[in-house]
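Reviewer 2 asked us to include a model.

Predict the structure of this chain.
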Amino acid sequence: MTALPSLYISHGSPMTALQPGPVRERLAELAADLPRPQAIVIATAHWLSPAPQVGGAAQPETVHDFFGFPAELYRIRYPAPGAPALAERVEGLLARAGLDAALDPQHGLDHGAWVPLRLLYPEADLPVVPISIQPERDPAHHLAVGRALASLREEGVLVIGSGSITHNLGDLRMGYGAEREAPYVRPFIAWVEERLAAGDVDALLDYRRQAPFAQRAHPTDEHLLPLFVALGAAGTQPRAERIDAGIDHGILAMDIYRFG
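Predicted model (structure tokens):
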């Protein structure tokens, strides 16, 4: 079996499920181009824990982890099956890599998981195992998480990191939008693209000091950390392909990366 690539997906606002914009087309094109996975492991920026947690539910619930949105959004379900045996394998791979991981037999799919998966695989017929992000750990830790999972790609498992290339929700009140983008967004996404194209992992791991406008683009790390999971899962010296899916609200870059 040919190894699958790994993916990083910027999932945007929960409203992406109702108003997907260009990301729907890009993800549909990507799904059509990829070999069909046997299962999906997805690291989501909206499941945070001190150490890696692995979702082992046989039928994960669709979690609406947000408030103040239209009622239609709360009616959406993504009834993908879980994969308890795969979850145990993921936990074992992380443990063998020296990472203190644990199974959570009840955790569902938060919007960082089900929103992009609903656009990528709308039939919800692929087993999904979510894993958590450690907001107090650095990018190198998350790169190690991804590397521990790299062998799964050769078994038909699609490893995804779900976050956002830029994520500063505090700037929603600044009046940015389609006609007025935040000035830090494009310099930051260009720097990430350049460093990935150059294979400069050291610079990426040190993005807080080296990237332009890093603090504005990411006041906190959790939405960029899944990028390092996807990068690590791709193995050594992967090719990085950026897929431009636009910029939401003038602040949320919807970049998708395919590593392989």
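The mean pLDDT is 97. Strands lie at 6-10, 39-48, 53-55, 102-104, 128-133, 157-163, 240-243, 247-248, 252-253, 256-259. We have added this to the supplementary material.
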